[in-house]
Design goal:
Length: 148
């Protein structure tokens, strides 16, 4: 089956956006190693490794240039980070983090205390990246919003 010009344009746009999110995660993952309080986030070594893995998955998916894989990445990663952001605000408790921005946080989510902790800035970032990814998925027209 021959792809139309519109399908190629959509595919190119979606793969570029997935690649862009990979760059964002790569930047935060690398800079977070040196500046653990970047953007008032709580960037531990483990947190940065997770961001770097997310970046490499995004790069792999975008470089395959397969629109179905890009759609799957946007919906799965968007859902994952969305749930993580919402949970942080719902079950995060007041406390002092052990990494990153060390000031008191009203919504500190200690997944693994002293190893993997998310604060308010992390929750906002997770919700922002989630909204971006899900928006990219919903604006790609090939399939309905609930199919992958």
């Amino acid at each position: 089956m021959v792809a139309t010009t519109e399908e190629k344009r959509q595919k190119s746009f979606l793969t570029n956006m997935v690649f862009f999110t990979g760059l964002v995660f790569l930047f935060i993952g690398i800079v977070g190693m040196v500046v653990p309080g970047l953007f008032k986030m709580h960037l531990s070594f483990t947190h940065n490794i997770i961001y770097l893995l997310t970046a490499f998955i995004a790069f792999f998916v975008s470089l395959t240039n397969a629109s179905d894989k890009c759609r799957a990445y946007t919906i799965y990663m968007g859902s994952f980070y969305g749930v993580l952001g919402v949970l942080g605000f719902l079950i995060g408790q007041p406390g002092y983090p052990s990494v990153g921005n060390l000031s008191q946080d009203q919504h500190l989510l200690k997944v693994i205390p002293n190893v993997l902790e998310f604060g308010r800035s992390d929750h906002y970032f997770h919700l922002l990246i989630s909204a971006f990814l899900i928006f990219m998925r919903l604006t790609s027209r090939k399939q309905s919003a609930f199919e992958v």
